[in-house]
Structure of WHG domain-containing protein:
Amino acid sequence: MARVGLTVERLVAAAAEMADEAGFDHVSISALARRFGVKDASLYSHVRNLQDLRTRLALHAGGELIDRIAAAVAGRAGKEALTAFAAAYREYALEHPGRYAATQIRIDPALVADSPALRRTGEITYGMLRAYDLAEPDLTDAVRLLRSTFHGYCVLESAGGFGADRDVRASWDKAVDALHIALEHWPREPSA
């Protein structure tokens, strides 16, 4: 029987806090059970296993991230939307490093299709890029460029990987400016 007060939502919220405090790799069933003062077995009526918990955490964090991005880009287009998108992404990654790490795990494609937050991520991202008038496969290539740039920058910044005297925020702003220029002058895939 499920312990009174334990819910999937409470477990995922606690796992999110734990991820930010100790790192995503340190989120475990045992650590979460200790946090609630229960035995590990008490959690298995709410989550199937560690992978299920981490997937739920990834979906939760992905929802938080896209909510922040959506609020930032609302009513904006072009470079202004790109800049707002990038800033919201970076702020979330730096404020919630464990949750952000959770958003990077590979999730079963069937779960992705059933996740309103992840569908919304695609809608918001592709919507933000609409001003650049890209069509497939260029649109997918552009999304991959943005994601890899934002992710790489945030991971390096959070690890203290930028040692030069240059202000990290100034470099970020330049990178976003360069991405805008790249998107405006995208090397289009030839028509068939």
The chain has a mean pLDDT of 94. The CA atoms of residues 174 and 180 lie 10 Å apart.
